[in-house]
Amino acid sequence: MQSDQLNYIPILMQFILAVGFVVGTIFVSGKLGPKRSSEIKDKNFECGIESVGNARIPFSVKYFLVAILFVLFDVEVIFLYPWAVNFRELGMEGMVKMVIFMMLLLVGFFYIIKKKALEWE
């Protein structure tokens, strides 16, 4: 093997160890866990409050839309940190690229404001 390929052996070993741990935990919990079940044990329990009604109530699509938009803009803000750390080394080219990135971000932000995606009813 070449030395570049040898650098990936620790990653492969860690992956095999992680998969082995997950499979082993699932196997052991299925074989060694308690087998007795009763009506009281099988009952839903949350915070000491008895369950009332169906737990499968539908969520509003607005909820998921706001969550996705939050994650989207949060991830885009993460890209600002490496740029800010390397601001001087990137020079004018990095500044121009970041201005383009921020303009695209603002266009998307104004679009969702125009579509009233963030307004809760």
From TrEMBL:
The subcellular localization recorded is: Cell membrane; Membrane
Q: Which domain of life is it from?
A: Bacteria
Instruction: Return the EC number.
Output: 7.1.1.-
Per the record, membrane topology reads: Multi-pass membrane protein
The reaction(s) annotated as catalysed by this protein in its Swiss-Prot or TrEMBL entry are: a quinone + NADH + 5 H(+)(in) = a quinol + NAD(+) + 4 H(+)(out)
Transmembrane parts of this sequence: 6-28, 63-83, 95-113
InterPro entries noted in UniProt: NAD(P)H_OxRDtase_bac/plastid, NADH_UbQ/plastoQ_OxRdtase_su3, NDAH_ubi_oxred_su3_sf
Q: Which UniProt keywords apply?
A: Cell membrane, Membrane, NAD, Quinone, Translocase, Transmembrane, Transmembrane helix, Transport
Kindly give the Gene3D superfamilies that the UniProt entry links to this protein.
Answer: NADH:ubiquinone/plastoquinone oxidoreductase, chain 3
Q: How does it assemble?
A: NDH-1 is composed of 14 different subunits. Subunits NuoA, H, J, K, L, M, N constitute the membrane sector of the complex.
Similarity comment: Belongs to the complex I subunit 3 family.
Role of this protein: NDH-1 shuttles electrons from NADH, via FMN and iron-sulfur (Fe-S) centers, to quinones in the respiratory chain. The immediate electron acceptor for the enzyme in this species is believed to be a menaquinone. Couples the redox reaction to proton translocation (for every two electrons transferred, four hydrogen ions are translocated across the cytoplasmic membrane), and thus conserves the redox energy in a proton gradient.
Among HAMAP family, the record links this protein to: NDH1_NuoA
By what name is this protein known?
NADH-quinone oxidoreductase subunit A
Species whose genome carries this gene:
Flavobacterium ranwuense
